[in-house]
Design brief:
Layout: E1 2-3, H1 7-20, E2 28-29, H2 32-40, E3 48-50, H3 59-68, E4 77-81, H4 86-95, E5 98-101, H5 106-120
Parallel strand pairs: 1-2, 1-3, 3-4, 4-5
Helix pairs in contact: 1-5, 2-3
């Protein structure tokens, strides 16, 4: 699942992941609220790529809501964000499985997503 308020970012992530592996299925969520709705509808992904800076519900708030729910708490979360300050990087690296800064290198994104998915198995 890719959670980002910028549709172009969601499209680019999906395109770049599928370029390397057609088997990836990407669930699109344009907000933290939509992410939670999809999870409630039982669309449970293997991994969530989560933007931090979003209107209404930030990535931090979305993260907290996901981790509060026993059905979702084990879903790996990778922060994918343009926020590059040291505090965000430290918190994102500590809370999530990884922290990736935008703009990202497509091959690096795939490698890091694969690494998190492999660790989950």
């Amino acid at each position: 699942m890719v959670v980002d308020d910028e549709p172009d970012v969601i499209f680019a992530v999906e395109f770049n992941l599928k370029k390397f592996n057609e088997e990836y299925e990407v669930i699109r969520a344009e907000s933290g609220k939509r992410c939670l709705e999809l999870l409630q509808e039982k669309q449970i992904p293997d991994l969530i790529l989560l933007d931090i800076m979003m209107p209404e519900m930030s990535g931090w708030e979305t993260y907290n809501k996901i981790k509060e729910n026993p059905s979702w708490e084990k879903i790996p979360i990778v922060f994918l964000t343009a926020r590059v300050d040291r505090t965000a990087e430290n918190a994102g690296s500590f809370l999530g499985e990884d922290y990736i800064e935008k703009p990202y290198d497509p091959e690096d994104l795939k490698r890091r997503v694969d690494k998190v998915l492999s660790a989950k198995k």
